[in-house]
Amino acid sequence: MESGRTEMRMVDVIAKKRDGMSLSDEEIRFFVNGITDGSIPDYQASALLMSVFFRDMDERERATLTLAMVDSGDRIDLSGIEGVLVDKHSTGGVGDTTTLILGPLVAACGVPVAKMSGRGLGHTGGTLDKLESIEGFHIELTEEEFKEQVNRLKLAVIGQSGNLTPADKKLYALRDVTATVDSIPLIASSIMSKKIAAGADAIVLDVKTGEGAFMKTEEDSRRLAEAMVGIGRSVGRRTLAVISDMSQPLGFAVGNSLEVKEAIATLKGEGPEDLTRLCVELGSRMVVAGGKADSLEEGARMIHEVLGDGSALGLFRSFIEAQGGDPEVVDHPDRLPSANEVIQVDAKRDGYIQSIGADDIGLAAMHLGAGRATKDEAIDLGVGIVLKKKVGDPVRKGEPLAEVHSNGRGTDTAISMIREHITIGEEPVTPPALIRGDIR
Ligand code: URA
Ligand code: CA
Predict the structure, then answer these.
(1) For atom 2 of ligand 1, which residue has the closest CA?
(2) What are phi and psi of 99, to 5 degrees?
(3) In the chain, which residues have pLDDT < 70?
(4) 13 CB less than 6 Å from ligand 1?
(5) Is residue 190 flagged as an active site residue?
(6) Each residue of 299-317: pLDDT tens digit?
(7) Might you give the EC number(s) for this enzyme (predicted)?
(8) pLDDT at residue 5, as a whole number
(9) Distance from Cα 256 to the centre of ligand 2, integer Å
(10) Are residues 49 and 136 in the same domain?
(11) Which of 159, 230, 249, 386 lies at 20 to 30 Å from 77 by C-alpha?
(12) pLDDT digits (tens, 9 = 90+) for 320-329
């Protein structure tokens, strides 16, 4: 050993954080390296996680933790792609179809979208599952094909590959069983490390708030958004965030091919108002982060233009075709998988819609087979729920509240969950505001 230097010990790192002090970059890297190579046992890692949970981390510590997790594994090499690569991340949400819509929207504005995507776990599938509901669509591109397609079309989606952020995987699994998931510095570094490892130059975040979200209160959602924007600033990745409402599902459709249909309708300018609005908010930020617009107003103008003149829709068609899918679905969405049965769930009384439990509608869709509970389960791409009302809407007895698209599995459970979780009352209700915050 070098003279005068003692070896770093995990017990001292834990004690320092336990007592509320900031850890040095060296200490944070020692921890992350030890997690990655297995030299730090789970009990010590857990103790540090709990200390961070109670003591927090400052902006420098968070940035160091993020970069150390990036360095624990591979980085996707996207060199050779022209332009500023902007990635979008939504923190959870039910029936969130924004990724499918934003890809073509911002690509049509000239911002390259090189998307790596995974399968979903939970209420509906992930973006990959949704895209695979298009006949023939595949995500098995070579790295060369992927980059070539991004340069040519500005849009390509590839399956997850490589060993990205293994330290985050291990820490997340530990957090899950030690009640340390709900920690702002840990969530923020986890999300940001994955985006950076996947090659993002700039990041746009949609932090959901409300009953169906990870963060139930607006204040916590704001703290999370600020934490991620702060990390982005510290590590030189321009990061912009919005806080958006998830107290009810976004749009009307919850289910894989149903959401693809909703995405196509939105790209035609015929989508649900809330979904369209959120796509404009996020899309304009992606255009700004990608350096194609100087202000959010200019970005929004560009997004409206590619929506209105059909160029985003045309780009979606070319993208589907380039990845082997049936481009005819754009003009004939009925070519997408559909369910055998569509059952209407009617209102039992007159009144106003008081609430639509986003989590519960998501769970109801999962009972129909739209999502997986475990990662190897098969999902049914054609099933799901289409809402007919939003919070604040007036409703008459006998009017449809929702449609259940079923292939025979879980139908009764889904119907009773919908009845229970779309509540109707006499009092008029002001619809919740969609955008709750803008952090940059
Ligand atoms: N999502 C993530 O990727 N990481 C977290 O820590 C929480 C949610
Ligand atoms: Ca939806």
Answers:
(1) 191
(2) -60, -45
(3) 1-5, 95, 121
(4) no
(5) yes
(6) 999 999 999 999 999 999 9
(7) 2.4.2.2
(8) 62
(9) 9
(10) no
(11) 230
(12) 999 999 999 9
